[in-house]
Write a structure and sequence with these properties.
Number of domains: 1
Number of strands: 16
Radius of gyration: 24 Å
Strand content: over 45%
Distance between the termini: 50 Å
Strand order of the largest sheet: 2-6-7-10-11-14-15-16
Oligomer: single chain
């Protein structure tokens, strides 16, 4: 029995021959689940200067329905990843991507506050020294939900692992990237009106590891684990340009993506042979 099973495995799962990738373009689309470390957030303005410590945050998943995820008008509502890349060798690619994450400071959490607030027209005027305040309506609502947009460039390495079938290959990929953060921060601070506009707020960097499958040389299905650091020194919080916030934190992502590829060099060689 053991001999028979061993022989079957050798016939079906074989080490892959390196697939020529040089000259290949790829485009993938998928969705992400994100996690964030606690962070200190500093708020500065004409009538306040204070810091909230160890703010907890979570992502914001859109309920799964056909309308939310596949309707053309709403396809960019969930947390998504879009990437376009090019293989400049058989193993290495460069790519540009947009990671549309969402960041929500959890409401009703107790936080330590240090600093001062004055002339706000609220009950929160005063001087604080590591006192406790509740993150609630009337004091602060704080989200990057349209979203925490990470526009980045990546260098990746790609390796074939196994051929599961003549038209199905298992792949390994890993790499690193850097980019800038262009969030649409949804903020209601003290007695100010809600502010919700895009703003170039900072930068990020990351590394990733993933496993994927290639079907019939052109269809891509992959999963990835990505982790990195985000620094946001210039977050807009109100319509007043003198008001701002700053924070930095680590993030993690699990991504699931599908896409396709096309090799122009290979296509050109086929035409030349013809």
């Amino acid at each position: 029995m053991f001999i028979a099973l061993s022989g079957y495995a050798q016939e079906v799962i074989k080490p892959s021959i390196v697939t020529p990738k040089k000259g290949e373009f790829f485009l993938t689309w998928g969705y992400n689940w994100s996690w964030y470390s606690n962070s200190d957030i500093k708020f500065e303005g004409e009538n306040y200067n204070f810091e909230l410590k160890n703010v907890k945050a979570a992502d914001k998943q859109t309920p799964f329905t056909f309308h939310n995820y596949f309707h053309p008008a709403y396809i960019t509502t969930p947390q998504y990843n879009l990437r376009l890349g090019y293989f400049f060798s058989d193993h290495y690619s460069i790519s540009l991507g947009l990671d549309h994450m969402k960041y929500v400071a959890r409401p009703d959490q107790p936080l330590e506050i240090s600093g001062w607030i004055q002339n706000s027209g609220t009950i929160y005027d005063g001087v604080y020294n590591n006192e406790t305040v509740l993150l609630e309506e009337g004091f602060l609502e704080f989200e990057h939900t349209d979203g925490l947009n990470y526009i980045n460039a990546e260098l990746r390495r790609f390796d074939d692992l196994f051929t599961l079938h003549k038209n199905i290959k298992m792949n390994l990929l890993y790499g690193a990237g850097i980019g800038f953060i262009y969030p649409k921060t949804n903020s209601v601070l003290l007695n100010n009106d809600r502010y919700d506009q895009f703003n170039l707020a900072g930068y990020g960097l990351h590394a990733l590891f993933g496993v994927g499958f290639t079907f019939f040389e052109h269809l891509i299905v992959k999963t990835e684990l990505k982790g990195g650091y985000i620094n946001l020194p210039t977050i807009r919080t109100t319509s007043n340009t003198s008001d701002s916030a700053s924070q930095s934190f680590f993030f993690g992502q699990y991504n699931f993506s599908v896409g396709g590829s096309f090799n122009f060099l290979e296509n050109k060689k086929k035409k030349e042979k013809q």
